[in-house]
């Protein structure tokens, strides 16, 4: 665990997360690996205020081809049905397109998480077409459906750029053709919980259609996890303890069976394996083998999940994961 997270865990006067899970089975991964999440690096064109992976233009950490090959090998061996590529801005990894093509040759469900704004830069203008040709599921983060709120989190002008890219994706058939899935992610701009996912999805769909003619498939609402830059914001603003108490108070045991860490593996740029992207941000690798190379050529076994107090971010209310609410 990194130093910031150690401090956070020691300071907080709420019970250890693991003590909330009475069923031993739910403290472990399920027997099958459903999603391989590949975090290809911390480089990003943006530096959002609440980024849990603390990505930005000055970050230099990117996944090399050797690590990618090992991840793909594990995906082949375990017949992983979903490969989920994320970052930073994953498009900025120099091997990104190669990775997408290889992933598409292994499974039929490949997800790319994009901040959209990167796709307006000249070097990446061809990627919407590339995504459509490979029938990649695009999951785009759009912090809000109005410019003012989004620009406050992501920077001036980011909303208009994102909207122009979504319109382009719609023109290519995204959100319209069944094979071109376009999903969006919403997370709150501060220390509060997201609204109910279904209500927020209706609101986004209505506003984006009326104002910009945009259509999309699903909206995922994600609770801000107290890791990375968001944890820093909570500490600086004096909101950490109250936010954590709110998460703890909203603990919902019905979300436990669907926790994303039970079905996935998350690999960092240097090949370190984590139970999820939040653990990656917290510097908490898996409790068993630590590197993806150790998983090559091996039978996939259940493993005990590495929990910390930030995990309350996944079990509050309707639950939260990279795929939205879990209950
Ligand atoms: S939140 Fe996403 S777009 Fe913003 S800095 Fe982090 S990785 Fe980049
Ligand atoms: S933060 Fe990760 S390990 Fe913790 S409950 Fe959420 S998905 Fe599981």
TrEMBL record:
<dbReference type="InterPro" id="IPR058240">
    <property type="entry name" value="rSAM_sf"/>
</dbReference>
<dbReference type="Pfam" id="PF04055">
    <property type="entry name" value="Radical_SAM"/>
</dbReference>
<dbReference type="InterPro" id="IPR013785">
    <property type="entry name" value="Aldolase_TIM"/>
</dbReference>
<keyword id="KW-0479">Metal-binding</keyword>
<feature type="domain" description="Arsenosugar biosynthesis radical SAM protein ArsS-like C-terminal">
    <location>
        <begin position="194"/>
        <end position="325"/>
    </location>
</feature>
<dbReference type="InterPro" id="IPR024521">
    <property type="entry name" value="ArsS-like_C"/>
</dbReference>
<keyword id="KW-0411">Iron-sulfur</keyword>
<feature type="domain" description="Radical SAM core">
    <location>
        <begin position="38"/>
        <end position="185"/>
    </location>
</feature>
<dbReference type="InterPro" id="IPR026351">
    <property type="entry name" value="rSAM_ArsS-like"/>
</dbReference>
<protein>
    <submittedName>
        <fullName>Arsenosugar biosynthesis radical SAM protein ArsS</fullName>
    </submittedName>
</protein>
<dbReference type="Pfam" id="PF12345">
    <property type="entry name" value="DUF3641"/>
</dbReference>
<keyword id="KW-0949">S-adenosyl-L-methionine</keyword>
<dbReference type="InterPro" id="IPR007197">
    <property type="entry name" value="rSAM"/>
</dbReference>
<keyword id="KW-0408">Iron</keyword>
């Amino acid at each position: 665990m990194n130093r910031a997270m150690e401090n956070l865990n020691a300071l907080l006067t709420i019970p250890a997360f693991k003590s909330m899970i009475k069923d031993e089975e739910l403290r472990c991964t399920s027997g099958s690996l459903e999603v391989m999440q590949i975090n290809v690096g911390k480089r990003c064109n943006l530096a959002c205020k609440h980024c849990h992976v603390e990505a930005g233009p000055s970050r230099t950490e990117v996944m090399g081809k050797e690590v990618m090959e090992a991840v793909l090998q594990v995906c082949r061996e375990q017949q992983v049905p979903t490969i989920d590529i994320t970052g930073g801005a994953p498009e900025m990894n120099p091997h990104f397109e190669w990775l997408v093509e290889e992933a598409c040759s292994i499974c039929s469900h490949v997800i790319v998480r994009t901040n959209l704004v990167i796709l307006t830069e000249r070097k990446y203008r061809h990627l919407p077409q590339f995504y459509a040709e490979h029938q990649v599921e695009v999951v785009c983060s759009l912090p809000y459906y109005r410019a003012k709120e989004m620009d406050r989190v992501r920077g001036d002008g980011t909303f208009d750029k994102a909207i122009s890219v979504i319109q382009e994706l719609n023109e290519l058939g995204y959100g319209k053709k069944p094979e071109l899935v376009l999903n969006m992610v919403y997370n709150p701009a501060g220390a509060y919980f997201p609204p109910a996912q279904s209500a927020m999805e209706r609101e986004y769909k209505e506003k984006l259609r009326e104002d910009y003619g945009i259509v999309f498939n699903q909206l995922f609402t994600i609770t801000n996890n107290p890791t990375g830059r968001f944890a820093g914001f909570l500490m600086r603003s004096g909101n950490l303890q109250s936010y954590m108490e709110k998460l703890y108070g909203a603990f919902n045991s019905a979300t436990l069976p669907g926790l994303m860490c039970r079905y996935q593996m998350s690999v960092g740029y240097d090949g370190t394996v984590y139970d999820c992207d939040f653990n990656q941000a917290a510097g908490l690798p898996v409790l068993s083998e630590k590197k993806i190379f150790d998983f090559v050529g091996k039978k996939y076994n259940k493993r005990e999940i590495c929990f910390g107090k930030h995990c309350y971010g996944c079990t509050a209310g309707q639950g939260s994961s990279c795929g939205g609410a879990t209950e």
